[in-house]
Specification:
The chain has about 300 residues and is mostly beta strands. Helices cover about 0% and strands about 45% of the residues. It is globular, with a radius of gyration of 18 Å.
């Protein structure tokens, strides 16, 4: 018996679009609509490299030396980014998730994260992907199934596709952040600065060109419906939009400069996050979940143009 690197493949179809969600990591592998790819995904016989499509929990982005203090106790998680000495993107990226509900256009997966070194808490994660004519909707719910309070943060890591034969250099990016977090050589935050008057002011849209982006943005502008939106458009005006509800008040954007060829700068990572990098260590934006308490966040992707 041959088992695919990302386990079972769950295909969703609606209005001529198709999405593939995977068992390993509970993430998004592909999204194709109208004959074009909206995400720069990966093949069914590949691992999900560079966090491609991953669910990032119980923290997104980097944690300095894997260390944090919670309710007076010190914790150290395994380091998953050895070159910088950080723990990155949580603990569930390569875990097997279980299907709890499935139809032709939707699937719900869950994973019970048991106590372990560095995160001695019991956390149930549930992610629902639903495809419709309006696009893909992703709802993530976390529940504290233990008997002590726990720290929680979450994010997702889709790469929007630049387009067939294109690099992100050729695309126009519009993103809503008014503030950018500055980082050190280990990609950990050192402070924040307004984007106004800098190349990172993406609020009105600009061609990416040779701009290198691997930054977290906050102070996200929102439309009348309360959603923040990121648009990536190719030269023909077609592309994709990532939208996120108010639970996501931070946004990481990454132009993929350290991604190995031939995929370098072929996709733009647009990462909705409920807290900034290094949040467990600093406490910034971390959600305290009491025993039995749940929290839910919603984001999605829609065709553009």
């Amino acid at each position: 018996m041959t088992v695919l690197p990302t386990g079972e493949q769950y295909r969703l179809t609606s209005a001529g679009a198709e999405v593939v969600v995977v068992q390993v990591g509970g993430g998004l592998r592909t999204y194709r609509d109208g004959g074009r790819d909206l995400v720069d995904g990966f093949g069914e016989r590949e691992m999900a490299g560079n966090a491609r499509g991953h669910v990032l929990a119980p923290w997104p982005n980097r944690l300095d030396a894997g260390r944090y203090t919670w309710d007076g106790a010190d914790h150290v998680t395994p380091l998953s980014e050895a070159e910088t000495g950080n723990a990155i993107h949580g603990l569930v990226r390569f875990a097997a998730w279980q299907v709890v509900d499935r139809s032709s256009d939707a699937v719900t997966l869950e994973h019970l994260l048991h106590p372990q070194p560095g995160y001695p808490f019991t956390l149930m994660l549930r992610v629902r992907y639903e495809l419709s004519a309006a696009g893909l909707r992703v709802e993530t719910t976390a529940t504290n199934c233990g008997d002590v309070p726990l720290p929680y943060g979450e994010g997702h890591h889709p790469y929007l596709a630049a387009g067939a034969g294109l690099h992100v250099d050729d695309c126009t990016l519009t993103a809503p952040g008014a503030t950018r977090l500055e980082t050190d050589e280990r990609a950990l935050p050192t402070g924040s600065v307004p984007v106004a008057g800098t190349p990172y002011d993406l609020r009105e849209g600009r061609q990416i060109g040779d701009l290198v982006i691997d930054h977290c943005f906050t102070d996200l502008a929102r439309d009348d419906d309360g959603l923040a939106r990121v648009h990536l458009a190719g030269p023909d005006g077609r592309g994709a939009t990532v939208w996120m509800d108010g639970a996501y008040d931070h946004l990481q954007v990454f132009t993929g400069d350290v991604v190995p060829e031939p995929r370098r700068r072929r996709g733009l990572a647009v990462e909705p996050m409920t807290c900034p990098p290094n949040a467990l260590a600093t406490g910034a934006g971390v959600r305290r979940l009491e025993p039995g308490e749940s929290t839910t966040a919603v984001w999605g992707i829609a065709p553009l143009g």
